[in-house]
Amino acid sequence: MTNWILGISAYYHDSAACLLKDGEIFAAGQEERFSRKKHDAGFPRLAIDFCLAEAGISINEVTHVVFYEKPFNKFERILETYLSIAPRGLTQYLKALPLWLTDRLWMGDHIANDLGYDGDILYAEHHESHAASAFYPSPFVEAAVLTVDGVGEWCTTTYGVGKGSELTLLSELRFPHSLGLLYSAFTYYTGFKVNSAEYKVMGLAPYGEPKYVDKIFSDLLDLKDDGSISMNMNYFGYLTGLRMTNSKFDALFGGPPRKPESQITQREMDLARSVQVVTEEAILKMARHIHKETGLENLCMAGGVALNCVANGRLLLEGPFKNLWIQPAAGDAGGALGAALCVHHRYNKNNRSPGKIDSMKGSYLGSSYDAVQIRETLSSLGAVFQEFTSDAEFVEAVVDRLDAEKVVGWFEGRMEFGPRALGARSILGDPRSQAMQSVMNLKIKYRESFRPFAPSVLEEAVSDVFNMNCESPYMLLVAPVLEERRITMTEDQEKLFGIDKLNVPRSDIPAITHVDYSARVQTVSKERNGLYYDLIQGFDRRTGCPLLVNTSFNVRGEPIVESPNDAYRCFMRTEMDTLAIGPFVLDKADQPEWKEEGNWREEFELD
Question: pLDDT tens digit string along 356-377?
Fold first, then answer.
């Protein structure tokens, strides 16, 4: 009899569902992709429906359903926090209380009633779920495990050891002291949205100077040698829930938070650089302490802070661990996966046999559409397309367009699980083009001009382009572009500050070279990436360039596209040149005029 385990995460941000089949990761998806509501935090009914449909089973064929945290423990933290600061925070507490008393505390009832499930419902702890998502899919028999995020029930950081099917957490840091919440406070203060735009702070950091680092360490944060932190809560507002920072924080850094969508100044750039430096130092100290305590050579990571690929890059180069593996869905969405794996290995006591590569299947765990389904959608939309009968001809047609500096929407195979587009739902371009970054940012993605783009590079060629000699299949490591590929700046260019640096070409692959000569690298192999590998290999044969610009197939404020209908709509709403979807290629110039009522960008929440 097949053992099906359904993992669920919900009610904070990035709700998701994951389904295991006899311990194998069978399907996983974020609710936002199906609901089209970015960072959807609601009960992931659509994601659950997808997982069950992918398996061809009903909910009552599932052996166990598991939730990624313990709601009563989380509510205990919220209640105790309010009692410790009362009467401050009363408004926010009264707003949250009905949600917990009528909904969030009764997850078991929710699952039983909404899904019609009458089997076992289990609960993992939040950081236990993160740790399991980090270790169990990794290729390591034995590894240290580090989880860092904003907050779970009480924990904000944990470390432990995984060996075989055993996973033991050894130490923890507790709320309100949180590296993730420190970073989110600066995200809020620099005018971006908490829990969704921290990566913008990371991307903005290279434009600034670390002028506030000493002030952070002297007034906000005590960082110990073991990486543990103690925060001065006099400067933060998140205990009351009203805002991340307060007036004392404003006074410390010279004014109020930047208003969202207002002009970014040098102050925001310097703040971003400063908190990034502090975060990197904390992560390095944590890693050194964990290595000293465990003596292990492998480290696995998860939690939202594990998505900070700049810190990960430094950890790889400067840290004590020989090998590093990071869960691609490191945030709360991955908690659904980790919770399910906890049940399989820790509750059901099943053995684990890691392989040469991880068990995430390239993170291609989401929905897919065959040629018949795609053709029906395109035909119903009146689209004009060319169909190819062989993969080789299809790849050559797409390479033709990329070599002509066309921007290509690429929709192939199963959708990615996690926040990164990894060559299944991607927008692609020629990295040699000086204009490609600004064209993609302003005309395709409709996002801030400073945002960098990532390269997808053939795994065997990565060390020919970047100072990196390991794989990075999930775009979670930043590496420098090799010195010999860089372009020396003139004296006048060296004097530029801030965003003025943006349009200075820095290498022979300018579209993916950030202002500090770095890039967020995805290595691509035939084994993991299939047709996407063939495409980059074809581009390399044509041009001698073994990489492409890769960004997620969406516009700002919209989730990554899930269906052929989503893909065509996004293609037609932007200045994208080509859509490659299944065996079909569509050129914008051939398409009928796109008509849509209202301002479609107002449908989506900017973040």
Answer: 899 999 999 999 999 999 999 9
* 530 found inside a domain: yes
Q: How far is CA 573 from CA 45, 552, 565, 602, in A?
A: 28, 15, 12, 13
CATH of the domain at 576: 3.90.870.20
Handedness of CA 248, 251, 254, 258 (dihedral sign): positive
> How would DSSP label each residue in 481-549?
BPGGGB-PPPHHHHT--GGGGTTS--BSSGGG--TTSEEEEEEE-HHHHTHHHHHHHHHHHHHS--EEE
Locate 62 and state its tokens: 């599932």
> Which pLDDT score is estimated for 502?
66
Beta-carbon contacts of 366 under 8 Å, excluding residues fewer than 6 positions away, are: 27, 28, 29, 33, 50, 414, 415, 416, 417, 424, 562
The model carries a pTM of 0.94
CA of 445: how far to CAs of 158, 426, 439, 449, 451, in Å?
36, 12, 9, 10, 10
Range of the domain at 573: 371-591
Residue 413 neighbours by CB under 8 Å, 6+ apart: 364, 368, 424, 530, 531
